[in-house]
Each structure stands twice: as C-alpha cells, then as structure tokens.
C-alpha cells in the first residue's frame, strides 16, 4: 500500500522530467491553482500571464520573473507542457488555446462560455494536433462531474439532468426565501458582499448556467447541444410574494438548468426558475452551493453537490485535470482517450413551445364576483386543467391576488392563456409564471 501511495503522489516519474505549466490568468481561480500546484514536487509553473503586471498579489513567494502581461509568452514558450487557461470569455482565450495546441501543449480550461459557443471547433482542432482539452472546472466549480460521466458512468444511458449551476443566483434566491426580501434588495447585498458582479447580467439572466448545461448535456447525452437551442430565463422577475406562496404550496424556487433527451434523440435543454418540491434534494441546495442530479440506466438517480465556485474549490478541479494529463505523459502517444470528444451528431432540439410542464401563476384581478370562474374558463378554453386555485388576499384597492397551479399542459397552450388573461378586463396583471418541477 505504501508503494502504491507514492506512485499516486508522483505520477510523472515515467516522464523523466518535471512537467512545466503555464497559467493564463492569476485571479481568484488562477491564484488557487498556483498555490495548490506548489505542493507537487514534479510540477513547476514556469510562466504566468496577467492583465495588470503591477497589481499586488496575495501569494507568498511568488517569483515575479515568471510573470508577464503578454499571454502569448505562455502559449509560445517551448518549455511549457500544459497550459491552464483561466481568463474566461471567447477572445483572446480561443486564439490563445489554439496557438498553444499548435505548439504541442495540452489544455486545461475553466472557460464555460468558450466551450458552449465553440466547443465543437475546439475539440476537433485539439484532435487534429493530438492534444487533449480538459474542462472539469467549467461546469460546477469544485464538483467533479465531467470525468465521472466520461469514466465511471460511461456505461450508463443518461437521459435527464437537473442542476443548480450558478452560485450567485442560488445565493440571491436563498436570501429572498430566508429573509422574505425583494430581489432588488438581496442583489444589492450580494454585490456588496462580492457574491454578485457589479454587472450581474451573466448570472441573474441565466447566461452562465446556460453555458454550463450546454456542455454538460453534450457530454452526458453524447450528442451536441447547440447554445442557440437552449431556452434561457433569469430570476429578475421573482418576487418575495412568489417565495412565500411556493413555501405554502410545499416548494422552493430555484434557478434550474435542466436537460432531457427522448428515445428519438430529441433534446429539451433549458435554464429557468422552477418551483422545486421540498422533497427534492435540489430544494435544499442553498446559498452558493451547486448540485447536479443525473438520471440514467443502470445507475438510477444520483446527485453530486458542493462548492460551485471559489479559489480552492475551482482550483481543485483545474489541478485534478492537470494531474490527469501529467499521469499520462511519456506513457503513450495518445493520452486520455476516454476524455476526448467522441460525438459528432447534433441533438434535434425540442422547442420550448412544444414542451409539457406544470405551472405556477400569480394573477392580480379585480375583486369581482366570478373572477375565479373567469380564470377557470380561460384555462379550460386552452385545454388547461387546474390542480389548485387560491385567492390569497384582497388589497385596499379592491384587487385580489390569486395563485394557480396547473396540471401538465403544453407550453404553447399556457402562453395562449396568458395572452387571454392579459386581454381580459377583470384581470389586471399576470405577475408571475413559473414552471413547476414534475
């Protein structure tokens, strides 16, 4: 056992030299990666590219001679074996990675946007030059998901994913739930604490989660998912009143990234708020924690949860990918075959209008006789059956808030009903329309 442990800790002995690492980006994640890699005696970080070379770094013993503000010094450095790209965005990251691959370097990245938008081109390019691109950190921070799907779960046919993939939105929704506070107030607090960006659009409008579920579904379903076919809806319209109503009904509201593939290979991939049953594991994933639930055969249902962001949790995934590459170098001319892209077919997308869902509606209407019946009639006219309809309160202006939960119904029928509600003289407004977990 002792000898086995030594082999695990020193995976590059067969390579015959220290493995040289180049890092692009020394922000939160890059700093965590650098600090973690110093624990491995057979690995050496030889070049680091930063945006601002004069920025103070909270890293003890950092050799400033390896710092540059030109990232091409990293990807063109002949000594570098592996490049860790940790700056995000499409450009210059894409060109830097392609340049590094041309120069014979393997890639580790945390770049969810680049993978979602250009993954197919990137993986084909890497295969052409016989290099690997690993990206465990791009999906769920410190939660291991890509390598398990490609290795331990490789014998499964995964058909469904439901996940919480964005810590910022999950933090906001949790605080709204716990405090009974408005979205605007909690967002401001999250920004002050550093949990939300000054411009939070990428998180709160669902872009970040959409990038992640695009790549995760592609890997899990073994069919390419196109980002433009992923339905996306953020959390900016969620109200404190919705949180209260959801709790009364036995639910929590979460931003869920979901993907489902049917027997014909058609994929329904989306990101939107959802009423999640309190009996579900995802209902209890709070604050900045992330989680991924997978359903497949023969494994059944499994959920992995943990920190979805942060310096060391994300560094854990980046360093794990680096070590996976290191362990293969010098042993074969074609490393990590199971981790390479093996799918070439595009999934046929299912339009959101053709999906079937349950819905929560919050309707504000005049407190007139027959208004409940009017809502029921509009639903019936659009082939919508109701599971419950409750008048919650009457305001001083003699309007009533009415909560509706539907049975399963086609999205296009629901949208026609919403249009009818908005054109009806006794209904003032449809305040909320949120899908319900089935």
Offer a quick outline of the entry:
The protein has 438 residues and is of the alpha/beta class. Helices cover 34% and strands 27% of the residues.
Description:
The chain has 438 residues and is α/β, with parallel strands linked by helices. The chain has helices at residues 2-9, 28-37, 72-75, 93-102, 112-128, 137-140, 146-150, 167-179, 183-193, 201-204, 207-221, 240-248, 311-326, 371-381, 411-422, and strands at residues 19-24, 43-49, 67-68, 82-85, 106-109, 133-134, 157-164, 231-232, 251-261, 266-277, 289-297, 300-307, 348-349, 356-366, 386-394, 399-406, 409-410, 427-436. It has 3 domains: 2-140 and 312-339, Rossmann fold (3-Layer(aba) Sandwich), CATH 3.40.50; 146-307, Dihydrodipicolinate Reductase, domain 2; 352-436, Alpha-Beta Plaits (2-Layer Sandwich), CATH 3.30.70.260. Helices cover 34% and strands 27% of the residues. Strand 5, helix 5 (112-128) and strand 6 (133-134) form a beta-alpha-beta unit. Helix 2 (28-37) crosses helix 13.
List the defining traits of the structure above.
438 residues, alpha/beta, Rossmann fold, Alpha-Beta Plaits, 3 domains, 6-stranded parallel beta sheet, 18 strands, elongated
SSE arrangement:
Elements: H1 2-9, E1 19-24, H2 28-37, E2 43-49, E3 67-68, H3 72-75, E4 82-85, H4 93-102, E5 106-109, H5 112-128, E6 133-134, H6 137-140, H7 146-150, E7 157-164, H8 167-179, H9 183-193, H10 201-204, H11 207-221, E8 231-232, H12 240-248, E9 251-261, E10 266-277, E11 289-297, E12 300-307, H13 311-326, E13 348-349, E14 356-366, H14 371-381, E15 386-394, E16 399-406, E17 409-410, H15 411-422, E18 427-436
Parallel strand pairs: 1-2, 1-4, 2-3, 4-5, 5-6, 8-10, 10-13, 10-18
Antiparallel strand pairs: 7-9, 7-11, 9-10, 11-12, 14-16, 14-17, 14-18, 15-16
């Amino acid at each position: 056992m002792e000898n086995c442990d030594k082999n695990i800790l020193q995976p590059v002995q067969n390579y015959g030299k220290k493995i040289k690492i180049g890092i692009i980006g020394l922000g939160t994640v890059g700093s965590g990666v650098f600090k973690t890699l110093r624990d491995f005696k057979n690995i050496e970080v030889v070049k680091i590219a930063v945006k601002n070379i004069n920025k103070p770094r909270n890293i003890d013993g950092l050799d400033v001679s390896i710092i540059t503000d030109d990232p091409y010094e990293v990807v063109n450095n002949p000594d570098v074996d592996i490049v860790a790209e940790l700056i995000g965005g499409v450009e210059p990251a894409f060109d830097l990675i392609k340049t590094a691959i041309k120069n014979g370097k393997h890639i580790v990245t945390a770049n969810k946007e680049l993978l979602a938008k250009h993954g197919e081109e990137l993986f084909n390019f890497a295969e052409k030059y016989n290099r690997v691109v690993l990206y465990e950190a791009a999906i769920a921070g410190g939660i291991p998901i890509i390598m398990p799907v490609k290795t331990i779960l490789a014998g499964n046919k995964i058909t469904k994913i439901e996940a919480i993939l964005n810590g910022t939105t999950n933090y906001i929704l949790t605080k709204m739930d716990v405090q009974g506070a408005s979205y605007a107030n909690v967002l401001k607090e999250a920004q002050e604490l550093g949990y939300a960006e000054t411009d939070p659009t990428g998180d709160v409008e669902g872009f970040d989660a959409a990038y992640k579920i695009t790549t995760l579904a592609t890997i899990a379903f073994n069919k390419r998912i196109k980002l433009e076919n992923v339905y996306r809806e953020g959390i900016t319209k969620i109200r404190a009143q919705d949180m209260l109503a959801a709790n009364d009904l036995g639910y929590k509201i979460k931003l869920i990234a979901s993907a489902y593939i049917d027997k014909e290979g058609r994929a329904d991939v989306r990101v939107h708020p959802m009423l999640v049953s309190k009996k579900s594991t995802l209902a209890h994933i709070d604050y900045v924690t992330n989680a991924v639930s997978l359903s497949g055969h023969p494994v059944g249902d499994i959920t992995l949860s943990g920190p979805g962001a942060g310096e060391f949790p994300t560094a854990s995934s980046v360093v794990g990918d680096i070590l996976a590459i290191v362990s293969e170098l010098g042993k074969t001319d074609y490393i990590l075959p199971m981790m390479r892209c093996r799918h070439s077919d595009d999934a046929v997308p299912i339009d959101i209008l053709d999906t079937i869902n349950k819905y929560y509606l919050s309707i504000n209407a005049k407190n007139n006789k027959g208004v409940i019946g009017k809502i029921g009639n509009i639903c019936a006219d659009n082939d919508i059956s109701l599971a419950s309809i409750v008048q919650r309160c009457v305001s001083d202006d003699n309007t009533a808030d009415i909560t509706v939960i539907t049975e399963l119904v086609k999205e296009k029928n629901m949208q026609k009903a919403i249009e009818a509600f908005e054109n009806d003289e006794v209904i003032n407004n449809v305040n909320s329309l949120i899908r319900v977990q089935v």
